[in-house]
User: Fold this.
Amino acid sequence: MNAWQRLKVNKTGMFGLYFLSLLMIMAIFGPLLSSHTYYETQLPLKNQTPSLQYWFGTDELGRDIFTRIWWGARISLLVGISASVLDLLIGVIYGAICGFFGGKIDELMMRVADILSTIPYLLVVILLMVVVGPGLLSIIIALSITGWIGMARIVRGQVLQLKEFDYVTAARALGANSSWILSKHLIPNTTPSIIVTLTLSIPTAIFAEAFLSFLGLGVQAPIASWGTMANDGLPALRYYPWRLFFPAAFISVTMLSFNLLGDALRDALDPRLRI
Amino acid sequence: MIKVKNLNVRFKNVHAVRGVDLEIQNGETVAIVGESGCGKSALAKSLVKLFPKKTAEFSGEVIYNGQNILTFSEKELRKIRGKEIGMIFQDPMTSLNPVLTIGFQITESYLRHFPEKSKKDAVKRTEELLELVGIPKDRIYHYPHTLSGGMRQRALIAIALAASPKLLIADEPTTALDVTLQAQILDLLKDLQKKLGMSILIITHDLSVVAGFADKVLVMYAGKIIESANVDDLFETPSHPYTQRLLRSKPRLDMPRSEPLLPIDGTPPDLSKQFAGCSFCPRCTESLEICKNETPPIFNINPGHTSACWLKK
Assistant:
């Protein structure tokens, strides 16, 4: 069985995959399905209930929530994926170097990582807001600055353990150099842990963005993000609950889907199970 | 083709190899026997300096093609490893990378030394190698865990042979295999040696492996070669008391059943210490006064048969 076949039999994992695929397609094409734009305000039509005209209703400025949800999905996916890819690149390379070379290099590099990890990311975000200005870029940078450390620690731990294996000595005995051993022998053996960490870091990043936007530290109006929409919807919870319900539901189900897919992927991609 | 002169290897305070001389001719099979911890593997690995940086200190010379390998940089060593001197390891279960197909691991080792060859050539070479070591070539894209222990050892041999080394170092190649497979793998190595004309340095603690396989045997004890002889001489007329006791501690089919096995009393010496006299003296039943205080030099007994024992003076 190959990885795809093993993924297919995992029902919850496939649910995650379907939902995320749908989310991606809708993030691209969703706004085109509606005749409204995310910034178009129609004050007479504010706080509409979901209807044929406005599928998810409208907010307090009469903006179409359906369109805004897909714009929010764009932001969430962009932040989630780019922050995680940065985490992955930095974390894997940094961790692998630490674990492989060990000694003073390891000691020094891990202490630097420890120091960075003590800085709360909220502080980093606020500082970056001042320097770079509020917006997506500073969120992504802030999440990457603090997010890669977990990945680096996990990869380092794995590499420390794996480099003692005989096949590493065997590769060396056949003339392989360090970078080859790292990239072809050690890092592929850490894929299961990398995938698990990655699937936890994507939803964490998505949630962090929503959370920052909810606090008003994220993307700025009129750009829609699930976090800002939830924030807008919260005061009206008693009278217009759908204004909070839709963004909150999307945040939850997206995070759940990533977690389910990640679990399934770890099982499916584990190279030790390949036949 | 390879000549070791007065090689010493130290790991921090452990003096693992203590002044070893050894020479391997083209096409020859040399065996090193000795008990666990006597420095066999350290000796074998130091021939290509296969230790993590700065963990081992070397002195002496390892002359290969007129050059001293011990002075080589890591980059020069990488050209020697695999291409000139190949190596196979003890445990086929852990010596293959579980996430790469055996085909990949063989082509990897080939392309490393022949980077000018195309991928296609490498795959062709890999199929030849698989055939040579007796693995069906449709197994090329199989992962190691789908192969049995014997198959994996064959795959490891194919990897080691990929760049056609002139010398193959086999560090306990049969220890992790059961007896029938041991015979198969040894036959395979013998056969490959004939076909490819390479030299083999085999390291083992199993005297029966040596008997059927090697031309020349070196007996190692406490980091030193204490006896060196042709395989027949060694088994018929062992000269060093250690070798004699070693041979007597092994059960034989022609031995009366009532006769007990004769173990060697005592334990191997601690290699972090230095000894004044012969390192085997405390366990030796025939030791002389001189053995306690003076290290025995190497005495020639017959042509090609040497022994480091004061009794042979």
